[in-house]
Amino acid sequence: MKNILIGVLLVLVSVYASAQFPGGNRGGFQGRQMNVGHFYGKVVDEKTNKPIEFAAVQLMQNKFDSLSKSMKETMVAGELTRPNGDFSLENLPVMGEFKLKISALGYKPVEQKIVFKLKLGQGGGMQQAMNAVDKDLGNIKLSINAVMLKEATVEETLPVYEMKIDKKVYNVEKSIVNTGGTAEDVLKNVPSVNVDLDGNVTLRNAAPQLFVDGRPTTLSIDQIPADAMQSVEVITNPSAKFDASGGGAGILNIVLKKNRKVGYNGNVRAGFDSRGRGNFGADLNAREGKINFFISGMINQRKSKSTGETERSYIGGTQDIHLSQQNPSETNGYFGFGRAGIDYFIDNRNTITLAGIYNKGNFKPTDNISTVTDTIDSTGTRSSSSVRVNESERNMQNIGGTFSFKHIYPREGREWTADVNYNGSKSDNTGNYHTQNYDSNKNPSGAVVNQSQTGNGKVDFTTIQTDYVDPLNEKMKIETGMRGAIRNYSSFTENFVDNIPVISQLNDYKFNDQVYAAYFTFTNQLEKFGYQAGLRAESSFYTGELTDSHQSFTHQYPVNFFPSAFLSYKLNEKNSLQLNYSRRINRPNFFQLLPYIDYSDSLNLSRGNPDLKPEFTNSMELSWQKTFNRKNTLITSVYFKNTNDLITRFQSRDYSLANHPIISTYENANSSYAYGMEITSQNSFNKWLDVSMNINAYNSNINGTNLQENLTNQQFSWIAKLNSTFRLPKNFSIQLSGDYHSKTALQVGGGGGGGRGFGGGGGMGGFGGGGGFYGGSSSTAQGYVKPFLDVDAGMKFEFLKNRAASITVNVNDIFNTRKNETYSESPFFTQTTMRKRDSQIFRVNFSYRFGKFDVSLFKRKNTRMENIDIPDAQ
């Protein structure tokens, strides 16, 4: 494309020059005066024979250069083809050999040698001579350039999973089992990534930072449709170029679909699942000349069903107490997703992009929690029970926008970019909780207790960033940039009993978080050895305020440095090694800081901690990549992570409250470390079978002795994932995707499994794995998640011309084995929990692709040469 644009520019400049300095006398055949030659013809599409407008036609000839004292190829004439494909090159010298060059955007360039077959002194008279210098070159046919149209052609050869030395790429469009789902369904199948039943994401057993199109986002993974995603980039150990947030878990970058093919193209799709819920979506992209426009939209209906069971036994004291809880739940709702934008190509080196995103959803969960309590003491056994019905509604909305500028310098690879990104989310929720207690004879005990809760929250997230890349030569490169991020959070919650406000449970909180950063990296390649050294400096400021009491909390970290280093060594053409190191930070999130007790479930009280400090992680990774051939690759990595001031769940009794309830909160533990090995392979065994495999085995150790004496947690775990794609005759394909999780340590930091189990144990407290802020947790240092297996399957049939249409059928958890079971214990209780959600859901989806490669989609009213803008050289 660069060569084409340069060619067009040269043509226009030459035309302008010819107009200013025309040739000499056209009447003779002597020396410089023999400029009477005329070449003409038509440029057409090879397949359709349709004329090609705006093709660049250049006529070249070797001439003596007085400066270099040698022959040099020079352009003697040129122009752009007319709407009918015609071109006409006049006032040409009639002697010598010429080279005709023709190029058009999206087509393979054509070159051919031509001459005027003028035979002087051989008879025939003047008429024959004039005919010889007026030559029709006929129809010159151009063929489509497959490289220029890689989205339409090369894309078919992309595997589901690609491995690069600095990241791994999961191509969502090649995954059959995710069609019609959300990013949550996609990430379950991405190697190195795990998603629990509550949608909490972990990367190597730690929560990563989520990006969309290379920038942080406020969207959650259940708000991003799978059909809007192009790929997922897994960056396990980011360099200093990337945001240092995210602790030791790295970055997950979701790349949304965007097309820049000339002409127009799009996709429409529709589907439904076995619960009668539909999904509908469409994409459209149009480009000609300086304008590229894209728009997409989707709406998904959701019906989610889950079940939960919890068994807890208290030990010690004069009574033995056993609690059993059953929690079936159903959530109905929808979410819509819209995205639009425009690229304006100012010239061949400057581009402006303006894009926006809109997301809206409504969810109505209903829980029916049954609890039975058995108490055994010297007087015998007593039983009591309760039934609690929760009816809630949650509305959410997200608006985002991006304005970016990109400048490409004449030197290849040198560029400067700048962008401003904004994401704003707001939500409101209401909940009604009706509890009826029963005695041992299952008779109602007292009146129904009616509680309710209303709340709303808002998040504004703005980032401003600029980056500069400069390849000093073919082997050296520098990258530098600056970034500012400002987040404003606010939350308000009000609780009622029998419609009477509970003033002591009023939650009104807001905080502001600011991070400013600058980075510099230097990359150099010395034959087989290469290295990259980088340093990132970040200043962060956090201020929170309890609005009703005006109590404030402040944390300031004026400057923190985050170095990174990458070393690579190419053993031979098929083997390479890489060693990398980075330091990163994980700042507390909104829910971890919110200093109010959540009373929505009286058995699971939760509260954030505004005094939390960030955790710092040092990571090292050694990787070996073996490339057997273009379709078979193996990467083996060993890694080590050490974290100080680890943010972890911690539970203890709050003696300042009535009945001394157990509160689940967050604290900074001393430290943790983890080490492991990961093996990833991508294999294409033949034309009909592709297999990718990922095995991650690791050992984790947590030291929380600063919170409680002898409080530690150590666990060896391993996870295996397998993805197989079978290409069958008649355009059928089948995909199987499965993963197995061994016994795994409870995740720290508030992500991961759990859900609404019981909220605490007795005594001093313990680590919690599982549960988001509003869920219970498996509350002890001595706990684990039981093994489980999960298998998804899908089948796809493509039909019509160029496989433009397809029907996909997929099913998740085909063996009904995906569930989250945990076991935890402490000196005060033992507990088991089980959670299961949305198994064996069938989806049927139809998709149709359309488009036309047409550079004259929006034809100009006037195509005369004098009305064509000539971009300035830079």
Name a few traits of the molecule.
single chain, 874 residues, mainly beta, 32-stranded mixed β-sheet, 4 helices, 47 strands, elongated, disordered N terminus, disordered C terminus
Task: Characterize this entry briefly.
With 874 residues, this protein is mostly beta strands. It has 4 helices and 47 strands.
* Number of DSSP-assigned strands: 47
Described by the principal axes of the CA atoms, the overall outline is elongated
Separation of termini? 17 Å
Question: Which blocks of ≥5 consecutive residues have pLDDT under 50?
Answer: 1-33, 147-157, 749-781, 855-874
How much strand content do the residues show? over 45%
Q: Give the class from helix and strand content and strand pairing.
A: mainly beta
Report what the structure shows:
The chain is mainly β and 874 residues long. 4% of the residues lie in helices and 61% in strands. The protein contains four helices and 47 strands. The strands form five sheets. The protein has a 32-stranded mixed beta sheet that branches. A six-stranded mixed beta sheet has the order 8-9-14-15-12-13, with no helix packed on it. The longest helix has 19 residues, at 2-20. It is elongated and about 125 Å long. The model is unreliable at 1-33, 147-157, 749-781 and 855-874 (pLDDT under 50).
What's the helix and strand layout?
Blueprint: H1 2-20, E1 35-45, E2 56-65, E3 70-80, E4 86-93, E5 97-103, E6 110-115, H2 125-132, E7 134-142, E8 161-163, E9 168-171, H3 183-188, E10 193-195, E11 201-203, E12 209-212, E13 215-216, E14 229-235, E15 251-256, E16 263-273, E17 278-288, E18 291-314, E19 320-326, E20 329-347, E21 350-377, E22 380-408, E23 415-438, E24 449-471, E25 476-497, E26 500-501, E27 507-526, E28 529-546, E29 551-572, E30 575-586, H4 590-593, E31 597-598, E32 605-607, E33 615-629, E34 632-653, E35 662-686, E36 689-703, E37 712-728, E38 732-741, E39 744-745, E40 767-769, E41 778-779, E42 782-785, E43 788-799, E44 805-811, E45 820-825, E46 829-837, E47 842-852
Parallel strand pairs: 1-7, 12-15, 32-35
Antiparallel strand pairs: 1-4, 2-3, 2-5, 5-6, 8-9, 9-14, 10-11, 12-13, 14-15, 16-17, 16-47, 17-18, 18-19, 18-20, 18-46, 19-21, 20-21, 21-22, 22-23, 23-24, 24-25, 25-26, 25-27, 27-28, 28-29, 29-30, 30-33, 31-32, 33-34, 34-35, 34-40, 35-36, 36-37, 37-38, 38-43, 39-42, 40-41, 42-45, 43-44, 44-47, ...
